[in-house]
Amino acid sequence: MRVLLVEDDGAIVKALSELLRTEGFDVSTASTQTGALDQLTAQRFDIALLDVTLAEGNGFAVCAAARKVAPGMPIIFLTASDDEYSTVAGLDMGAVDYIPKPFRARELVSRIRAALRQANPVERTLIAGDLCLDATSAQVTKAGREVFLSALEYRLLLYFLQSKGKLVTRENLKDAIWDSAGEYVSDNAINVYIKRLREKVETDPSDPQIILTVRGMGYKVDA
Q: Which residues contact residue 66 at a Cβ distance below 8 angstroms, ignoring those fewer than 6 apart?
């Protein structure tokens, strides 16, 4: 997913770019209105993060231009926490969300992914071997029989199946599954949760064929 980050605070640009790249996003940056418009006309983006106040120009003008170039692209405004006017104005212009500064890393990534899911609905039926997850009804079946999962187990399985073919690290799981309040989750706890999930979805939990372990790196569901 390609992200356009329009922000003139160098420290925020550096930190946010590094964060998003570790999460698998391709990030392009601009610090001015003119630079952002040049980027929008030169290439396609999946989402834009816009600061309202720029050294040259403003985020509202960038939003208006983006709406003409890419009408379906979700836009998130980055605003000061007490700037109610900018928040309302941005949403009125068609932004899908706003994130007040300073923001928390997990919450930011979660809200970016939520905006992308809304703009690009995922396949509603996810299949791996004889396992089927219906995201509309939140029903999971294995070989035609319903599998009853806890809320956390369901979220884990959904994330794994949506990431089919990709490496899923422990950090990916912590950011995607646990809440944005910074709750600490140990590696041992993750091992326990995945063990419980495998006991329900694998034919032989001691020899998993769906949720595979990539030694020293994380997990993967084969494409």
A: 40, 48, 73, 75
